[in-house]
Structures are given as structure tokens and as C-alpha cells.
Amino acid sequence: MRYFIVDDDRASRAMLSAIINDCELGTVIGEAKDGLEAIPQVLLMQPEFVLIDLLMPNLDGIETIERLLQGGFKGHFIMLSQVVNKEMVAESYAKGIEFFIHKPINKVEVKMVLQRTAEQYRLKNSLQAIRQSLNNFEVPEIKHTQKTTREHIQTILNDMGIVAEIGSEDIINIIEQLLIEKHKIAPLPPLKEVYERVAMLTKTTPDDIAKEIKAIEQRVRRTILAAMINLANLGIVDYTNAEFEYYTPRYFDLTDIRFLMQQIEKSGQRKARVNIKKFIQVLYSEIISKVD
Predict the structure, then answer these.
(1) Burial class (CB within 10 angstroms; exposed 0-12, middle 13-18, buried 19+) of 97
(2) In degrees rounded to 5, what are phi and psi of residue 90?
(3) pLDDT value of residue 183
(4) CA of 31: how far to CAs of 7, 27, 65, in Å?
(5) Of 184, 264, 200, 196, which Cα lies nearest the Cα of 229?
(6) Percent of the chain scoring above 90 in pLDDT
(7) Which residue ranges of the chain lie beneath pLDDT 50?
């Protein structure tokens, strides 16, 4: 991925550039201290992503984005912001911004957001290439095949915005193991036993299995937290959003999501209690109903 950074703070530009290079996330092809300086360069270089600060002198982030889109820019934007409020988020989403990086800049968050956006970019391009290829052929009839279990799970995880998270594969493996063992809807076996089954898919020695069990739990916890954050952001923008209304009350405690929404709006913090067992239980129940 090629990135262009627009931020009036030189330290922020340097930090973002260092993270992108150190984590091998792509290449920083240019940077600018404000929107007026950025516009001609971005339109000329056409990077895949522009990381742009919301509050800048001369031309703020929203105005810069509007001018870039009017000028024919086809790439994507990731907003950098120290202030997160309902009106700002709503306006940003309306302009096509899908992701935010909160200031002060955190390396883990930057890496997670850029990996996720890059994955979605590649997926979108792949789908476009497939559609273009199909347009070159005459297809007399398309037979609809039944979704696999994995596809059902991926659809749900995609709705929550976590299909590209590293822990999503662990979640898929957990559900598949439960289906293999044909557990009833409730109660499920202890999570540690399920983690062990998944760990044994790739590890053989007792020490390696024990380490992998801990790693699986950490990855799953982070992935579920990412789902909570995504849904909380959707709720902030539109409390009647279809994904927010469907997944929030089923997979999570509404109190936890509301608390997370308040954190995001007031301070930008995104800490919440993660109930892994409930998430797995509900997901397993939903998959059972789809594959039976």
C-alpha cells in the first residue's frame, strides 16, 4: 500500500511514517503540513490511502477531502483526530471515511487499522477483478449453492467488521471444532478445552500447545473487543443502524456497549469488558440454525 500523510504536526507525521516503515505496512510516498499543500501532490501521486488530520490550519481535513474528491481522487481516507464527537463522526462517514486513528498516536492501533484497511482494499480489488472477468463471458445460468459453515461465520464476522482480524480465524476454528464434536447449544464445554482442540490443529508438543492456548485466548479477546468498538462507533453515528441493532443485543451486553460509546465520545478511550463465552455461545447457536 502507498500512503500519503497530511498533518500540521511534524512529530505526528514522523511517527506515522516510522510505524508504517517499521511494521512493513507499505510505503509513505509523500507528506504535507496542510490541505492546500497536500491537494496537488495527492492528485498527482494517487496513493491508495491518505492519512489526514481533522483539525489543520488553512484547510481542515473535511474540506481537503471534499476538494480531493472533486479533483478526481479515487483512493481512500483514514482520519486522524484528537476530538471524537457524534457530529464529526457523522460528517466524516458521510464523506466516505471508514476508519479513524485517535490521537495521541498509538503504534498498536495504527498497525491494526492499516492492516484492516489494506485487507479490505485488496478484497475489494479482487472482487472488482472477478466481476470484470465475468463480464467478458456469457453465463447462461448461475446455480446458487448452499453456503459452507465457514462462509456463514465469515459473513457474520464481516458484518461486525472483524473478518480481517487475526483472531477471526481462531473463532472460525473454534466453531468448526464445536460442530465436529456435535455439542448441544448449551452448555458448551469450558473454553480452555476448546482452545486446546484448536491449538492441537497446529501444535504437537505439550509446551507449544500450552503457549498456543494462551495466544488463542488473547487473539480472540482482541478480536471481540474490535467488534465491540466497531459496533459502538456505528451506534454513535446511527443508533438505528441495522448491524448495530441486530448484533449488539445478541452478542454483547448493552450496558458494556453504551459504556464504550460514552468512552469514545468523551475521551477516545476504548476499553470494555469482553465476554468471550457469550460471544462464542451466540455465534455457535446462530451457525447451528443456519447449517441444520
Answers:
(1) buried
(2) -60, -45
(3) 55
(4) 8, 12, 15
(5) 264
(6) 40
(7) none
DSSP 8-state secondary structure symbol assigned to residue 203: -
- Residue 120 is predicted with a pLDDT of 83
Query: How many Cα atoms occupy the beta-carbon half-sphere of 230 within 13 Å?
Result: 22
What is the distance between the alpha carbons of residues 118 and 31, in angstroms, rounded to a whole number?
A: 19
Amino acid at residue number 161: G
CB 153 within 8 A of CB 283: yes
Q: Is-contact 16 105, C-beta < 8 A?
A: yes
What pLDDT, on a 0 to 100 scale, did the predictor assign at position 83? 66
Q: Which residues of 229-264 are buried (b: 16+ CB within 10 A; e: fewer)?
A: bbbbbbbbbeeebebbeebbeebbeeebbeebbebb
Helices (H), ranges, 96-190: 107-135, 149-159, 167-180
- Within its chain, how far is the Cα of 92 from the centroid? 17
What is the Cα–Cα distance from 233 to 89, expressed in whole angstroms?
A: 8
Amino acid identity of residue 112, one-letter, is M
Query: Nearest to residue 85, comparing CAs of 111, 117, 54, 109?
Result: 54
pLDDT attached to residue 136:
67
What is the pLDDT, as a whole number, of residue 73?
Answer: 92
